[in-house]
Amino acid sequence: MNSIKNIFQTKNREVLSIYFTAGFPNLEDTKTVIEELEKAGVDFIEVGLPYSDPLADGPTIQNSSQKALQNGINLDIVFEQLMTIKNSNKTPLVLMGYLNQMLKYGEDKFCQKVVDCGIDTVILPDLPMVEYENHYRHLFEKYGINNVFLITPQTTEDRIRKIDSYSKSFIYMVASSSITGAKGEISQQQIDYFQRIKSMNLKGNLVIGFGISDHKTFSKACEYANGAIIGSAFINFLEEKGIDKIYEFISSIRNN
Amino acid sequence: MLLAMTAKNKKMKGKFQPDKNGYFGQFGGAFIPELLYPNVKELEDNYIQIIESEEFQKEYKSLLKDFVGRPSPLYFAKRLSEKYGAQIYLKREDLNHTGAHKINNTIGQILIAQKLGKTKIIAETGAGQHGVATATVCALMGLECTVFMGEKDIVRQAPNVARMKMLGAKVVPATSGSKTLKDATNEAIRYWIQHPETFYLIGSVVGPHPHPDMVARLQAVISEEMKWQLKEKTGNENPDTIIACVGGGSNAAGAFYHYMDDEEVELIAVEAAGLGVNSGESAATSQLGQVGIIHGSKTILMQDEYGQIVEPYSISAGLDYPGVGPLHAFLFESGRAKFMNATDKEALDAAFELTKIEGIIPALETAHALAVLPKMTLRKDQVIVINLSGRGDKDLETFIKHLEE
Ligand SMILES: Cc1ncc(COP(=O)(O)O)c(C=O)c1O
User: Is A57 a residue of the active site?
Assistant: First the structure.
């Protein structure tokens, strides 16, 4: 599997990342969804670790997580599923979950499994910077894992600079003050915020997510960042059209 | 200016006060998405200074006295004492305006919200007591109020829903998960993320730092009064034992607060055992939980082996919560407080007993605290204070159903 850092160096087009929930729509779909996304030319994939109480997620991802848990998914199964495609899959994977999942699984055990699966980047939206500094930075460095920090319209410049200094994979720029969920439009206010961040000339790669849903919002986001992430809109599509039509969704994003 | 300075420097000391990152031992912290950071930071930077300011204290004390009706009486329960062979006092938080201890906290927080210039208030509620207390202070101050409440709780605490509506609050049903307090709190936090201009008026000693410490300080008035009331009544400001029920833990935090460092006072926290601690239908967090993160706080949490939160169960909406505030997790782990529990049935029996022999109908939550009396070995001269956290008007339907069974 390629490292996520290389994506931004080698890609000259807009980087497209797709988030999906492991074990959804069916328990065994994790592997197929990743393979289909790779075939469709997605640049990197966020594998959502289903959680019972996902505080930063809207109804779509809450529901897909709930279904995946009902399907019987758990961290051991996710890691097993990811191990089976470790050698065939070239598209970098990022794990997205909640801190309590790692805490309960065992922090070292979790990190070791992440590394075993060939993954080097995690997103834990409820891991705040101070906890990262005091408790997790050292742990992640030991395993060569990069933590992705989120920035929002309210994050101060000082804090963004600090996040930039910590960010080795990319910076997750949350598109608005919002939880996850598909939205139709990007407002002028959001564009002003994107512009403000873009003009900070950060060293890290910026990827915009939360509310990106179609070709229009994706291209708009990419004018101000290295790429963008689509989650809820893809989950909605999976639910409606199933996993055989993934190519259609991706080409609609890329080509309109 | 000088006053503000000294107030700022007067951080509380003691083993049971949080450190600068909001930790009580290994419990606490602020595990929040970046989206909430500015809000939580603003509160953290200001809450102690506000609470300790002369202006706040004057307004807070005056509202507690004239609007809430404090001090709440410390009542010697003669017949209950005779029955159990001890000296039992009831701290009558049920006599507060709106019927529970919850208003001590909402009066304080609404003043803090105003000092921070916030005009829109959100809250979660389980039993509806915190929702009513929040809707009440919002009406008092003319602020917009939205309360999140689990769909299941909306049904079982219907009188409080009606009160909130009459007070002008918008009640939003939480329909995810077990449709109870945990889910109402999830929805409140999600709304807060999407509306960062709102003030989240949290109802218990839970949530990210500084919320647990702030709420504990605002409920501390309970034990502050207990000290002089006991001195007056018994000649000693310390009781032997204090008993309080624990959902998130705010009434217990208030009743324990000024006694935590005084090891000679026994502290008993009572959790809801539902149908029995090991029945699979329980909310006895300290017995069933392990270290975990819920609602932005590291605490003891009911969860499965993969960290998925387990849906709790209790007949009492206010105790039906899979976590406990970080202070209580620390009181439990350090052994400073003794954790007991009571089942639905034991709580119902205790509620009927208090009603019959003392003429007081307690809230179902409170009934759990009363329900441990028969399980204790008591001394005749043992001075016990039970924090009577609320009245049972909201639970009449449940009580009557039980009467008929
Ligand atoms: C009367 C009463 N007691 C106790 C509780 C439990 O909350 P806490 O543990 O925060 O005191 C509630 C909560 O709704 C309540 O209404």
Answer: yes
